[in-house]
Structures are given as structure tokens and as C-alpha cells.
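Journal club prep — side note

Before the paper discussion, L.F. wants everyone to see what a predicted structure for a comparable chain looks like in C-alpha cell form. Sequence:
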Amino acid sequence: MKHSIWVLIILLTVAVNLCALPTGKSSLFADSYMLRAHGPEAAYWNPALISPVYSEFLVPFANTSIYVANNSLNLRTYNSLMSDQYISDSDKRDLLDMIKGRLTVNSELHTSLFGFTNNNMSFSSAIHFYGNASISEKYIDLALNGNSEDEYFFNKGNNNAAEMSFIDLTMGMGNFVLPETYAQIPPINYGFSISLLTGITDTSTKSYSGYFSSTSDGMYANQDIQLKNSVGGIGFKSMLGFVAEPLPKLKAGMTIDNIFGFINWNLNTEQINYSIAVDSVYVSDLQDDFYTEYRSTEDIKSYTTAIPPELRLSTLYSFQTVNVSLDWVQGFGSSPMTSKIGRLALGTEYFPYPMLPLNFGLSLGNRDHPWRASYGIGFKSRITEFGIGLMSFKSLIPGYSSKGVSISTYMSVKL
């Protein structure tokens, strides 16, 4: 019974493809990476940094980042609940106390297909997957304890799912210098990138309503779900970036991302209608099929997913064998890719030896993005660089207290 409850919760929470950071190396700094990117990666973070100084080739599929995280449960909690044959009342209370309003799962996957630079231009392509799903605390309470109230109402706010995947083909140009207006202002470099987006899949919750009641007349329940779905689309986005060095060893930068960002879904667009109803059921009826189920699909017109703009501000200070960066990102709308709640990230890199970079990052997070800490180690030479990183969500040290994990790899060859 206990395992069945967990299976129910997991199925309800991850009913869509859990997906999965723009470049593999950025995760090693918890995404405090805007002024660290170079070569083809700069087209995704700050195209002003594309320059002949960094001419390199990204090894296909070796630059990958994947994560899955939730807002409530860690591995220690799961093992504790599974250690006994039954979930005790105190375990149930502790579990529900951890889930504040809803259990939310987020996941992303990004992997590079290719990338290279030529002078002050870069060309690259990558696959991106984004997904999230939420389930109301009331649903979990109902599964654990049964009904303690006469009526339950559920809506889309705490019960929803969305996923989106696409491939980008990106061209960037940088290392341009703005005309000097005042002698006191240091030179400002700028660059831009444009991305053609090929949509793979898109699924989102269009509407959801749920009802459950238990009275002397029996048990009633009704769930109505409408999902919007497409397989195939075309889109576009662009980025404008700036970077300057106001003081020796101190860089400052700004980017505006997702300018004119959208994906128009126009292939196999459909709406999926799903309904399940239970009417006047008594305990004696539970051995029989006691519900009616309805599922239908209907073709719909093409639709567009907007990708809201994001503003990112960053500073990077370098001192001998250590550098420290600070990034702030502010979205102007919510989507599977963006959040309108700002977030702050800190990244550091230390070279105990010239060829051995050690990385650490800390993102403070927000309501949509849980705070996270990342660790990485790599190898850097005049010919190549590669490395691996691990990120922990809501726990400083990766382990049983983590509420999510991320694994990232990167590898490039100098041209």
C-alpha cells in the first residue's frame, strides 16, 4: 500500500516528460557564467565576448547538463518512509509539513550538437528540454489519510504540467566596439546572436478542475483535464550583449536575451480532453469498476509560445589564481524557459595549478527556482579543456539532504 501511494504521487507529479541548462560548463558555476563564456558558448551568454582570441570547437554531445529537482522531498525522507512496512501518522504529518501548498518538480536537459568559432563569428546548435509539473498538497493528503473533509476542490493553479523541447541553430558575432562618447568611459564591446528554433514537442495544461466528496450517499469524484499538444514548430530569438572593463581586473556586462522570442507550433496541433467520474460509490462497490473514463482528441489551430525577454547583469573580478563573478537575471514573463522573479548567482574559480580549475557556484533561487550549490573540476591546456560538475538543490553538500541533483560535462578543442 505504501509503495502504491508513492507510485500515485510520482505519476501525478511527472505525468509529462521531465526534461531537462544552456551549456554544460555554466552549471559548474550555478549559472553565474555570463562573463565567463567564450567561443561558441558566448553566443548563448554574452555574444560581445566572441572574439578571435578564443577560437575553439565544442565536442558534440560532450557539453551536456541535466537536472531534476523538487521543492519538498529529499532522498533521506524517502528512505525513512520506505524503511518501515507502513507509513506512520507522524511520518504523514512530517511529509505534509514539507509540502507547502504543492509539490513541484522541475527538470531540464541541454546538450550541444556542435559549435565552433571563426574570427569574431560563432556557429552552434544544441538540443533543449524544459519541463515542470505540480500537484496539490490536498491530493497527497487525500492519498495518505483519506478524506477528512466533506468536499475537496482542485484547480489548475496547483495542479498542472508543461514541457517544451526544441533545437536551436545559433549564429553570433561579437568583439565590436561602441563609438566613444566620453573620454572618461572605458571602451564598451558589444555583440549579438540570432537563433532559429525548431520545435520538437510542446505540451501544456490548458485547463484543469477537480472535485471530490464523501457523504452518507456515497463517494463522488470528477476530474476534467484539457492538454494542448503539438509535435513540430518553428521559432526565433535573439540576444544583445555588452561588456566593459571599468577597472583593471574587473569586468562588467549586460545582456538582453529572448528578443522577439517565440515558437509557433503548427504541426500535429491537438487538444486532449480527459475526464474521469465517480458517482454514488459505496465501500461494497470498490471490488468492481466504479468509475467512468472519457478521453478524446480534437485538432486545433496553430498556436504560439512566447519566450519573454530576460535582462542579465554581471560582474567578474580576477585576482591571480582566483576569480569571482556575480550575476543577476530578471525575466519579464513566465514560461517553461523563464521566470519573472529575479534571481542572484555567485561563481568562483580557483587554480591551484595552472591546468587544474576548481569551480564553485551558488544560486540563491526564488519561488520558481530552488537555491542550489555546484562544484566542478576540470583540465585546461593550450589544446583542450574538459571537466565535470555536480549540483545540489536545497543542500550545500550533494547527498541525502538534496532535493535535486544536476550532472554536467564540458569539452572543447582549441582551433
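L.F.'s comment for the group: DSSP finds five helices and 20 strands in the chain. Keep this in mind when we get to the figures.
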